TrEMBL record:
Belongs to the NADH:flavin oxidoreductase/NADH oxidase family. CDD domains: OYE_like_FMN. GO terms for biological process: jasmonic acid biosynthetic process; oxylipin biosynthetic process. Keywords: Fatty acid biosynthesis, Fatty acid metabolism, Flavoprotein, FMN, Lipid biosynthesis, Lipid metabolism, NADP, Oxidoreductase, Oxylipin biosynthesis. The keyword Flavoprotein applies. It comes from the Eukaryota. Its cofactor is FMN. The keyword Flavoprotein applies. This is NADH:flavin oxidoreductase/NADH oxidase N-terminal domain-containing protein. Signal peptide: none annotated. It comes from Rhynchospora tenuis.
Length: 365
C-alpha cells in the first residue's frame, strides 16, 4: 500500500511525531472565570494520539490579555494547577502538547480589563463594532497605545506565562502572533502608526514580536518555542500593505533564535470553479525558515496529503475538522467519513454539547 503522507512520522526537534495531523489552537470559551476546567481533560485527551501534536487554545498571558468570556489564562498559580491534569491526560495518551500564549490587545473592552481600564495596544485607534455570525454586535473600547517605557513589562508577562506553561507540564509554547491580536497590532502597518523604536520601519514594527521570542527562548529554551503568524489575513482591522515582505522578514529573523517551529496561516480561501481553493502563498517563507513548518487554513485530507507529499509544509494543522472529529488522524488513515462541525456550539459554554460529544468512528457507524 502507498504510504499516506499525513500519516508518516516526522522528527520535530526532540519530539518524535508519529503523524503530521496537528490540532489547531481553538478557543472554546469553557474555562469559567478564565480557569481551565476538568471537562477540558476529556476534550483534549479525546484528541490526543501517541506522537500527535496538539496546540491548546489561545491562553491569556496576563490580566490585560483577555477579550473573550471564559477563555483560559496562565498567569496565576490557580491557572497553572488547573492546567496540570489536562496536560497529564494528554501525556498519558502519548500526545505532545503546546500552549498558545495569547494577548488580544485592543480586541477587548473595559469589561475584560483589570479595574475597567482601557485595553492596551500598539495604537490608540479603536476597532469599529463588529457584527458576529449570529447577528450580535461586539463593541471594542478605545485602547491605550502603550508608551515605549511600558512595553518591557508586557514582554515580561509573556516570559512569565511561558515559564508557567512549562511548570504546568506543557512540552512547549506557541506565541500567538496572528489574527489581529496584540503582537500583530505592532507588526502590521494598518494598526501601527508609532514613531518610536516600535513603529515605522518593518524592523521596528517586528521588534515587539522578536523581543517576546527572545525573552521566551531565554526562559524555556528555543527548542520548546513555536510561533503562529498570519501576514496575509486582515482580521480585526489588522492588515499589512506588503504581507510577503513582512512574512519573510519574520522568518529570517526567527532563524537567528533557532526556534522549533513556525506556524503560518494561509490567505483566505477563494472559490475557483465552485470549489474552495487554498492560495498556497507560504512557499517562500517555508523555504527561508530553518525549523519545522506548519501550515493551517482550510485543509482537508486530500489537500493535506498533497502539501506534505510536495514538501510545501512539514505538518498540517486542522481546526474545524479536528474540533468535530476527535479521532481525526485515525479517520484520515482509514479515509473514513467525517462528522460535520456545528458552528453554533463553537463558543457556547456547555461542558459537553459541541465539546466532548462529537462521536468517534465506532460510535458514528
Ligand atoms: C472555534 C474556533 C476557535 C479558534 N480559536 C483560535 C485560537 O484560540 N487561536 C488561534 O490562533 N486560532 C484560532 N482559530 C483559528 C484556527 O486555529 C484555524 O486557523 C482556523 O480554524 C482555520 O483552520 P481550519 O480551516 O482547519 O478550521 C479558531 C478557529 C475556530 C473555528
Amino acid at each position: 500500500m502507498e504510504p499516506i503522507p499525513l500519516m508518516t512520522p516526522y522528527k520535530m526537534g526532540k519530539f518524535d511525531l508519529s503523524h503530521r495531523v496537528v490540532l489547531a489552537p481553538l478557543t472554546r470559551q469553557r474555562s469559567y472565570g478564565y480557569v481551565p476546567q476538568p471537562h477540558a481533560i476529556l476534550y483534549y485527551s479525546q484528541r490526543a494520539t501517541k506522537g500527535g501534536l496538539l496546540i491548546a487554545e489561545g491562553t491569556g498571558v496576563s490580566d490585560t490579555a483577555q477579550g473573550f468570556t471564559d477563555s483560559p489564562g496562565i498567569w496565576t498559580k490557580e491557572h497553572v494547577e488547573a492546567w496540570k491534569p489536562i496536560v497529564d491526560a494528554v501525556h498519558k495518551k502519548g500526545g505532545i502538547f503546546f500552549c498558545q500564549m495569547a494577548h488580544v490587545g485592543r480586541v477587548s473592552n473595559y469589561d475584560y480589563q483589570p479595574n475597567g481600564q482601557a485595553p492596551i495596544s500598539s495604537t490608540d485607534k479603536q476597532i469599529p463594532p463588529q457584527t458576529q455570525l449570529d447577528g450580535t454586535v461586539t463593541e471594542y473600547s478605545p485602547p491605550h497605545g502603550l508608551t515605549t517605557n511600558e512595553i518591557p513589562d508586557i514582554v515580561n508577562d509573556f516570559r512569565l506565562a511561558a515559564r508557567n506553561a512549562i511548570e504546568a507540564g506543557f512540552d512547549g509554547v506557541e506565541i500567538h502572533g496572528a489574527h489581529g491580536f496584540l503582537i500583530e497590532q505592532f507588526m502590521k502597518d494598518s494598526s501601527n502608526s508609532r514613531t518610536d523604536k516600535y513603529g515605522g520601519s518593518l524592523e521596528n514594527r517586528c521588534r515587539f514580536a522578536l523581543e517576546i521570542v527572545e525573552a521566551i527562548c531565554n526562559e524555556i529554551g528555543p527548542d520548546r518555542v513555536g510561533i503562529r503568524l498570519s501576514p496575509f489575513t486582515d482580521y480585526m482591522e489588522c492588515f499589512d500593505s506588503d504581507p510577503e515582505t513582512l512574512g519573510m522578514y519574520m522568518v529570517q529573523s526567527l532563524n537567528k533564535f533557532n526556534i522549533l517551529y513556525c506556524h503560518m496561516i494561509e490567505p483566505r480561501m477563494t472559490i475557483v470553479e465552485g470549489r474552495y481553493h487554498i492560495p498556497h502563498r507560504l512557499s517562500l517563507m517555508r523555504k527561508a525558515f530553518n525549523g519545522t513548518f506548519l501550515a493551517a487554513g482550510g485543509y482537508d485530507r486530500e489537500e493535506g496529503n498533497k502539501v506534505v507529499a510536495e514538501g510545501y509544509t512539514d505538518l498540517v494543522v486542522y481546526g474545524r475538522l479536528f474540533l468535530a472529529n476527535p479521532d481525526l488522524p485515525r479517520r484520515f488513515e482509514l479515509n473514513a467519513p467525517l462528522n460535520k462541525y456545528n458552528r453554533l456550539t463553537f463558543y457556547t459554554s456547555d461542558p459537553v454539547e459541541g465539546y466532548t460529544d462529537y462521536p468517534f468512528l465506532e460510535e458514528s457507524t
